[in-house]
Amino acid sequence: MKTVRPQWVVIKAVVLYALVNLAFAYFNPPVGKFSLYNWLIPGRARVPYEREVEYYEASHTIPVYEDLDAMYQSTLLAQPKQPDEFRVFLLGDSSAWGFQLHPEETLVGQLNALNLKTCAGKRIVVYNAAFPLPYVMKDLILLDKAREYQPDLFLWTVTLDGFRNRTIFTNYFLDPYAERVQALAEEYQLTNLDLQKLETPTFWDQTLIGQRGRLKKIFLLQVHGLGWAATGLDYDYRSYPPLSPDVTADDTFFETPPGKLGLEDHMLFNVLEAGYQLAAPTPVLVINEPIFVASGKNSEIRYNEFYPRWAYDEYLTYLQNWMRVNQHDYVDAWNLLPPAEFTDTPFHRTPAGERKFAELLLPQIQKLACPK
Amino acid sequence: MTFLHLGVFALAAIGIGRLKVGRELALLAFSVFVLFWLQPAQPFVSLRFWIPFATLAIIALVWALTAPPEARAMKKNWPTALVIFGVILLIDLNQFFRLDAIYMTATPRLWMLALAWLVFFSVGLALWRVRQTSTLAALVALGILFIFIYLKTPALVVKSFIWMDSLRGVAPATRPLFSWLGFSYIAFRLLHTIRDFQARRLPALTLSEYVNYAIFFPAFVAGPIDRAERFVVELRTPVALAEQDWAEAARRFIIGLFKKFVVADSLAVISINTIFVEQVHSPAWLWLFLYLYALRIYFDFSAYSDIAIGLARVMGIRLPENFAAPYFKPNLTQFWNAWHITLTQWFRAYFFNPLTRALRTKQISIPAIIFVTQLGTMMLIGLWHGVALNFLCWGIWHGLGLFVQNRWSEWARTKIQTPLTPRRKLLADALGMFLTFNFVSLGWLFFTLPTPALALNAMSKLFGFN
Fold first, then answer.
1. Is the distance from CB of B271 to CB of B288 less than 8 angstroms?
2. DSSP tag of B319
3. Which residues, in sequence order, are bridge partners of residue A86?
4. Pick from A136, A249, B76, B152: CA 20 to 30 A from residue B266's CA?
5. Which domains does chain A have, with CATH numbers?
6. What was the ipTM of the complex prediction?
């Protein structure tokens, strides 16, 4: 019988493990591309997301924002495009994603329920490509990735909050894509984008050990797929207190006093322009999303707890001018909905609100789907 | 236990296994350290120190009450006392070193520790002089059982801490639930030695041997529950390790890690639980999640046994097997001979067999004796997991299952005289395996769901009565 030498077994195992780690870092295999979704498990209606770890189980989900391939591969978006299909991708924050709503109640669900067709008779199918984070640079990265899935039109919902430079989100969302972020910033001259805190992953971060967290999440996302397939639920619906008609008397916008918003210099409007150019020739329809307009105490100071009136009005005027000057398609829906159509935040909408919002977008979508 | 814990355990086991001198004391020192190191969050942070201290105190007192005079000789035991004292002192001195990465908790001030030692030695000396009697041992066993029942009754634990808050005049606070790590296993080792002492079967164990047996670090959290007389033989004369033994030990350890951290932890996400029972309406999906739970609990539990067996083997100690392909058994009796074997053997030795013998002296029919003993044993095994109605129902489920299977086997033995052909035997075994696996899986509903009502609701959904 062949003698086993434990020390050699250990040495060989260590060497092999080191080699596999180095090879993984060098080749950086697209692990996220391999998915059980849309094959063994039905694709999700929207990207996996849940804020609180303790609700992952009830939501049958685990967020994998470190790997956009894995994130989109788990959704219906990754299905092969049908010849009679006109694909519309919705980008945006939590209100586009559909907080507190079942997939069929979201904006995407409501648009699909309208059974839209293009002039050429193609089915207009809307896909939810949004990730719940109010940050336009995050949307640009998603738009960049979503191009791989053959879109015919992008709908991009925005609000003032998303144009802020958010260093906290840089580390949270952009770090894994640091190289691409820097390339986009250079290519589209996103000079006011604050990338000081952006941390480019090192070679060691790319090894199997360095990537173990991401790989574990990708694996668990497949496992959670069974829960999703069995229940059709991808979110734990929790109760929330209704929005108060009263707001605080504070007139600052995230500590910025009136007159100091600096839309031109500090806000990321150039990211919108980058989005148009990056998506081309696919058209982009930017939509200023509805907000809750308070009617009670201090409502003469603020529209809601997020926006003092002076800041939002300044933003609105700037955005409308910017769109007009640049001749972009644009829908302004900021005051479309009455207060009763908002749920837990000044942005999250009720199913009826989503329906009304969808009906507003209908003519614009059909216009862009039927080019002259 | 985390990867860090298990990595340190593996290195320690290799180191201890290679020692030529002082191996037993080194094992003791590390096991004492692990007892402190693994303590979970407690309602009061200082309990993370005092619980392991109390564990060691109880073990030492039980030893003092059960060890024969020749094993209690001071010259044999002072190095052990010194090692235990030294490790505890070092852990307490960490309040000055602040090596938080290794051990972090609110350690008591030195004078408190000194006072605790004084109380412990006073009680110890008093017991030393007391005559070792069966009655005294029985009283200690009852004390251990009392602590055990208290710990296994969460409602009682919560109420006691609310009561303590009221005594201190403070409002009840939200705290982690009080837990005594490993007490379920330690208690059963101690009870086994007490019963064997009463039956005059317990071998003479020194303090070092006894403490090592009770808190042997690979096995004290999740078993297996070894027998003292078997354990001590290999503790005194470790089994020589051939190169193949190293490979086997490593294989068990790595398989254990894989079963726990890859298989069981992944299955945990998709195993039946309250959420699935409420959200899933399709019986087919529910059956799948139930089967996945059955696999998960097996992989989780047997993984710890694999890890413990692998670590112990490196130190020259062969722990007993705890699982033997239980889901491939053709009937429930064989399942229980293959599932958590050491716990089942413990109950068989100290409850089932004595009760059967006692009942046989009475004018009771054999089926009635079988019914009472099997149901009683399984109810106790259920309650060992927690004093709650769902665990009791789980025990009753299995007790009734064992009784029905016993009666069926008896009936079949008398009716079917001709032996089965190999083909029919294979078919019968396959059918038996299928029925046993499904019966056990359905039983897990009582085990994992918090109330019997929810378990029955799940059962009705599984059979399409939604």
1. no
2. P
3. A124
4. B152
5. 6-369 (3.40.50.1110)
6. 0.86
Partner-chain residue, chosen from A3, A57, A220, that has the shortest CB–CB distance to B243:
A3
Contact A198, A178 (CB under 8 A): yes
Closest CA to A269 of A145, A140, A169, A130: A140
Check whether A137 has a pLDDT greater than 80: yes
Residue A186 sits at φ, ψ, to 5 deg, of -70, -45
Residues in chain B, pLDDT under 50: none
Query: How many helical (H) and strand (E) elements, i.e. helices and strands, does chain A have?
Result: 13, 5
- Which residue is associated with the tokens 């919108």? A272
Report CA-CA distances (Å) from A163 to A140, A181, A274, A319, A320: 12, 16, 13, 11, 15
Residues 6+ apart with CB under 8 A from A332: A287, A288, A316, A319, A320
For residues B301 and B222, the answer to whether their CB atoms sit within 8 Å is yes
Q: Is A227 on the interface with B (CB under 8 A)?
A: yes
Instruction: Tell which wins on pLDDT, A95 or B78.
Output: A95
> Which residues contact residue A44 at a Cβ distance below 8 angstroms, ignoring those fewer than 6 apart?
A37, A61, A74, A75, A76, A228, A234
CA atoms within 13 A on the CB side of B276: 32
Residue B307 structure tokens = 């890890």
- Count of CB atoms within 10 A of residue A10's CB? 12
Q: Residues 6 or more apart from A278 whose CB is under 8 A from it?
A: A140, A143, A144, A147, A184, A188
Distances in Å between the alpha carbon of B462 and those of A223, B233, B288, B357, B442?
Answer: 22, 50, 10, 41, 9
* B446-462 residue pLDDT tens: 999 999 999 999 999 99
Q: For A253, which DSSP code?
A: B
- Would you state the pLDDT for residue A2? 61
**Is residue B413 helix, strand or coil?**
helix
pLDDT at position B105: 60
Q: A9 and B250: CB-CB below 8 Å? A: yes
- Say if the Cβ atoms of B269 and A220 lie within 8 Å: yes
Q: CA A353 to CA A107: how far, in whole Å? A: 9
CA–CA separation, A65 and A43 (whole Å) = 17
**Residue bearing tokens 């003032």:** A160
Q: What is the dihedral of CA A195, A199, A202, A206, to 10 degrees?
A: -110
pLDDT at A1 over 60: no
Residue contact A220–B270, C-beta within 8 A: no
Beta A85-91 vs A284-288: how paired, if at all?
unpaired
The number of angstroms, rounded, from the C-alpha of A246 to the middle of its chain's C-alpha atoms is 30
Q: Furthest-apart CA pair in chain A: how many Å?
A: 89
For A301-325, what is the mean pLDDT?
94
- For chain B, which residues lie within 8 Å of any Cβ of chain A, measuring from their own Cβ? 243-244, 246-247, 250, 266, 269-270, 273, 275-276, 279-280, 282, 285, 288-289
Q: What are the tens digits of pLDDT across the range B159-213? A: 888 888 888 777 777 777 788 888 989 999 999 999 999 988 899 999 999 999 9
**Short-list B444, B189, B415, CA closest to B335:** B444
- The C-alpha atoms of residue B359 and residue B347 are separated, in whole angstroms, by 16
CB atoms within 10 A of CB B153: 16
CA–CA separation, B153 vs B93, rounded Å?
34
Rounded Cα–Cα distance for residues A62 and A71 (Å):
10
Return the SS3 of A340: helix
Q: Is residue B185 within 8 Å of B48, Cβ to Cβ? A: no
Kindly tell me if the per-residue pLDDT of A88 is higher than 70: yes
A and B: number of Cβ contacts within 8 A: 42
**CA geometry: angle at A107 spanning A279 and A280, to 5°?**
5
Q: Which two tokens stand for residue B89?
A: 């002192």
Biggest CA-to-CA distance, chain B: 77
* Pair of tokens at residue A296: 């009670």
Give the count of beta carbons closer than 10 Å to the beta carbon of residue A37: 23
Q: Which two tokens stand for residue B23?
A: 């191996």
